[in-house]
Design goal:
This protein is an alpha/beta fold. The chain is 42% helix and 19% strand. It has an eight-stranded mixed beta sheet with strand order 1-2-4-3-5-6-7-8, with helices on both faces.
């Protein structure tokens, strides 16, 4: 891991491989490790740059930040490294940061891959996650946030399979409630529903048909708003989509933009 002092914070990131740059932005509470399987493939052909957003991982900052701040951090890092424009891949909240990056810093983005994306976070998901954050603030076990995330991220088939074979379900390590709330506040305050039309980079939106965190109709709507955007439906998958189900399409898409 490497740290860079940019925009008044200590920004944590990792790089691997050689070639055209690919910037990978994780979702809520996620860190660079989220992209481990993706990096294992992409680093054979590209320079991969994984970042920890404000409020997660090794990045050090205070609360009170926005999605726009996260996008500005990513743009500043690309500038610091001298590698832009980059192919940008974001999942969930990370895809929202990626949209903001393409809107506010278009020169930093060569192509945009948005996995499980949205313009405005869904009310039902926010209801559950905000309640989990409040409960932890009031003394509940921190794992409650991870349990809420798992409930929304995975399909019934996933839970049924784990139940049948007795395999434990990993719960995300979200133990800094101040930062967890700060990220949630940033998500709740952001909306790119109308501004997505300003995205000039070629884009690919990928969404699971069984996503209950963000209904597939929202991904379709964003794809229809971005002027140059393809849409890929992944049948039977939820908010978290296995890498093998979408990475070949991402490689084809990025390859066509080089």
């Amino acid at each position: 891991m490497v740290e860079a002092e940019i925009n008044g914070i200590v920004y944590n990131y990792e790089t691997a491989g050689e070639g055209d740059p690919v910037l990978l932005i994780p979702g809520y509470g996620g860190s660079t490790g989220f992209w481990r399987k993706v990096v294992a493939v992409l680093a054979e052909r590209f320079t991969t740059i994984c970042v920890d957003n404000r409020g997660a991982g090794g990045t050090v900052c205070g609360p009170g930040f926005t999605i726009g701040d996260m996008a500005a951090d990513a743009a500043a890092l690309l500038d610091r490294l001298g590698v832009g424009p980059a192919h940008v891949i974001g999942w969930s909240m990370g895809s929202h940061v990626a949209q903001r990056l393409a809107i506010d810093h278009p020169a930093a983005v060569r192509s945009l891959t948005l996995v499980s994306t949205y313009g405005r976070r869904p009310a039902r998901s926010a209801y559950l996650l905000d309640a989990a954050v409040r409960a932890v603030e009031e003394g509940a076990a921190p794992e409650l946030i991870g349990i809420a995330l798992n409930t929304l991220n995975y399909t019934e088939g996933f839970f049924g399979g784990k139940e049948a074979d007795g395999t434990p379900i990993r719960v995300s390590d979200i133990d800094d409630i101040v930062m967890a709330k700060a990220q949630m506040d940033a998500v709740n305050a952001s909306d790119t529903s109308d501004e997505a039309r300003l995205i000039a980079a070629p884009a690919l939106c990928i969404h699971g048909t069984d996503d209950i965190m963000i209904d597939i109709s929202e991904g379709e709507r964003i794809a229809g708003t971005i002027p140059d955007c393809r849409f890929l439906r992944i049948e039977g998958e939820g908010h978290w989509i296995p890498v093998a189900a979408y990475l070949p399409a991402v490689l084809d898409f990025i390859g066509a933009q080089r």
